[in-house]
Amino acid sequence: MQSIYALLREQARLIVSSFPSPDFYQDHFQAYEYSSRFFKADPEIRKLCRFVSENLDDDFGHGLQHAIKVTIDAGALMNIEGQAVGYSESMLERRTQIVQSAGLLHDTKRKKKDHSKHGADYARAVLENYSLSYDEIEDVCRAIQNHEAFKSNITIDTAEGVLISDCLYDADKFRWGPDNFTDTLWDMVSFLNPPLSKFMAGYPQGMESLEKIKTTFRTETGKQYGPQFLDLGLAIGQKIHDVILSDFSEYL
Question: What is the pLDDT of residues 21-54, one digit of tens each?
Fold first, then answer.
């Protein structure tokens, strides 16, 4: 027999499928395709992806699927923002490799308290075996350390480093939209397996967190498109809440 949360995941995916995709993917299709092609073709990124797939737990809602989505969206944001500030083609490729490295590694220590700090330290050790320079590795690590919402950021003293950090943050927070209700939320609750009544007791606070994230996007592109991701998430979340009350009331 399927668990309550497995059934809810199925219902949630049907609800998500009834909503439109965020405008970002249509308006910036070329940037997204550029990042997707780079992710599939770059030897260093492929090597790092294989490493992450072998060393990243999937049972807390932030596994490989999450990391890849963040990675590709971060690369797309880098393409858009990098072109806007005049990056050359070669620099754009290099900075895409750096931000995609940050995307793949950003949640490797997700289960630890202060996971961004632990993740940055871990990334620094891992990337010693890759072709990035010391400064490039530090850009990755600072971005990872700065990717959590509602926390103080460490200072980054170059515009290039700030952009890596901001692209990673915004790509990660895009996931708080529809993706939250197709996979992330259900992976987390399946791992923790709280009673449905406890899950519902915390639901309003979770929705409030989505609302608060809307004002935290950092790149110009993120500020333009990020709130729509969250608005979609809020609308989806409300529908799921209503379905639980109507169709799963016997478990409350």
Answer: 999 999 999 999 999 999 999 999 999 999 999 9
Q: Report which of 93, 234, 105, 108 is spatially closest to residue 168, judged by C-alpha positions.
A: 105
Residue closest to 227 by CA, chosen among 170, 185, 153: 170
- Give which of 231, 230, 232, 226 is closest to 28, Cα–Cα: 226
Residue 150 tokens, joined: 């509602």
Helices (H), 106-214: 115-126, 134-145, 159-174, 178-179, 185-192, 196-201, 203-213
The 10 Å CB-count burial string (b at 16+, else e) for 28-64 is beebbebbbebbeebeebeebbebbeeebeeebbbbb
Domains of the chain: 4-251 (1.10.3210.10)
Report the alpha-carbon distance of residue 245 to residue 172 in Å, rounded. Answer: 30
Give the three-state DSSP class for 183.
helix
**In 3D, which of 161, 146, 140 has the Cα closest to residue 114?**
146
Q: Could you report the per-residue pLDDT of 84-137, keeping only the tens digit for each?
A: 999 999 999 999 999 999 999 999 988 788 899 999 999 999 999 999 999 999
